[in-house]
Amino acid sequence: MNSGYVDLLCEVDMSRVSGVKRDPLKVRSLLRSIARNTATLVDNKTLEQDVKTSDRNDLSRNTITEYLDALSRLMILYEQPAFNPHIRSSALLRKSPKKHLCDTSLAAAALGLDKESLVKDIKYSGFLFESLATHELNVYAKANDANVFHYNDSYGLEVDAIVQKRNGNYAAFEIKLGVGYIDEAAKNLKKFAANIDTAKMDLPKSLNIITGTGMSYPRPDGINVISLASLGK
């Protein structure tokens, strides 16, 4: 069913929404590139090169911009904006959004992946899980007058998701498919919190790690471990 929807999107919907005939092969190549780079800070230049290298198709940057706009209007593409906090360090904050397809099943369908393919590529499956969890956070954020951002700076410090309410209160989330990465994620969150300039803004209301499996519990250091299944509870 998802593969059929990808076909419809490439052959009909993209042309319909823009009022211009779109090349289905080029649309499919761009969808595949977005799927390969889901939950990353991929820019249009990188997408252009990726399409050329992986699918041997040529898409100009202007065409990519037009196609991305059409995908956004079709609510197929979601861009997760960058968080811009006051920090103590001299690091430069990355301003580029992360790109996600609206549903991770579309990413798998666009690339023709099955269960065996995903098990063999756990790193990519981790990106898909991050995209899935970000989608779920968006659902709860919108219901609570909040938005979902990401944090990334020039020193290499990243936080997968920052949920911020309109009043400025915010919480930080690391998203890890495997429970074996919990300690690493906790260290990252603490580093992020320690870098906040508390003279100019408050610390996050909570630090959280979303996992694919396992129990949900508060760690002794106060960081919450939350399995995806219990995220909304």
Describe it.
There is one protein chain. The chain is 44% helix and 18% strand. By secondary structure, it is an alpha/beta fold. It is globular, with a radius of gyration of 19 Å. It starts with a helix and ends in a 6-residue tail after the last strand. The chain has one domain. The longest helix is centred in the middle third of the chain and has 22 residues, at 122-143. The chain has a six-stranded mixed sheet with strand order 3-4-5-6-8-7, with helices on both faces.
Report helical residue fraction: 40-55%
Query: How far apart lie the N and C ends?
Result: 30 Å
**Estimated structural class:** alpha/beta
Taking all residues together, what is the mean pLDDT? 94
How is the main sheet built? 6 strands, mixed
Radius of gyration: 19 Å
- Order of H and E elements: HHHHEEHHHEEEHEEE
Domains (count): 1
Low-confidence stretches: none
Helix tally equals 8
Q: DSSP strand (E) fraction? A: 15-25%
* Strand line-up in the sheet with most strands: 3-4-5-6-8-7
| Number of strand elements | 8
Overall morphology: globular
What is the gist of this entry?
By secondary structure, the chain is of the alpha/beta class. Helix content is 44%, strand content 18%. The chain has one domain.
Structure characteristics:
single chain; 233 residues; alpha/beta; six-stranded mixed sheet; two-stranded antiparallel sheet
